[in-house]
Structures are given as C-alpha cells and as structure tokens.
Design brief:
191 residues; mainly beta; six-stranded mixed beta sheet; disordered N terminus
Length: 191
Amino acid sequence: MCRRPAKESGVEKMERFDFVVLLNKIPPEGQEVSYEIADPAKVGIAVAVPLEGPILADFEIQRRGNEIQVEGTVRARARLQCSRCLASFTFAVAGEVEAIFAPPAKLVEGDHQHELAQDELEVEPLVQGGADLRGVIAEQIHLNLPLKPLCRDDCPGICTYCGRPGADGECGCAPPAGDSRWEALRKLKVP
C-alpha cells in the first residue's frame, strides 16, 4: 500500500493535494492508498464530532475509462455524548466506501432538468481531472454515527428529579406519585 504523508524534518505532514487522485496518474492495474490523518482540520476535512486518535482510510482506486472508482474503508474513534445519561463515551466509526468520480459533463444533460437515477446519486464530480477523497472520508464518518448515541444498550438514563445518572446506582428519590384520576382503574381486578 502507498502511504501518502510527506516527510518533513522526520515528522509526517499531509497537504490538501495528498488527497487528490489524478485520473491520468492511475496505473492500468489500479493503486492502493492509505491515509492516517491526525488532524483532519489541517488538511480540509470537516468533521462535526471530536475524534480520539487519527482517521484511518484505506482505498483501492481503479480507472474506468474517464471515471475513477474508489472502494475501501474509513475508520475513526469519535467522542459522543449518551442521549440518555449524558455521559461522554468513545464510539468506533467504520464505513465502507464505494464511490465513482466522473467528469462534470456526465452529471448534467444539456439545459433541461431531469430526475436523478439511483446510479447518478452515487457519482461525485472530477475536479480538474482528479478525485478529491477528503469529502468521501468526512461523509463516511458522518454517515456511520448513530442517530441516538447510547453509552451502552441498557443505559438507564438519569433520574428525572435529581439528575443523577442511573448507572451510579439508586439515587433515593421517591417514585413519582400516580395520577389520582386513574385510581379507580387501578383498583379493578382482571379475572
């Protein structure tokens, strides 16, 4: 696999252009590239959650005529907040990449509008003859985050009275009193 970071004074340094794969530079047999991105913001990768450690991305890149086909994986460890108990926890993000980059002319058909087909939704534009992989990397991190993050599946949440996390044990708050309007129904016995 080809490691893309450039060496500068013994320290790995990545530039924005390290993430652009040029169509005319892809060998006939394709190429493999791997990235270890310690600081995504420095190379122009916008990630909406804090990360613990680097982003790891491995791609197989093939030239298909005037298109670039990219397949691979993106992995990272995100710092999230539990939606039940509000505790901070680490979540392992892993996403599978399948993307096609095509010339912009293929994405637009003349001056008329048309509804995009499913295969057109998966196509990214080639910019100046190259595929910029930064957007694919950020997209996979965001797409693979949970909608409702939980520190664990059986998280008890917090006490609605004192706010103490249920994982810390019983808080001693009295259970809520029932609504007196339902008392007659509670007294009914079901045979």
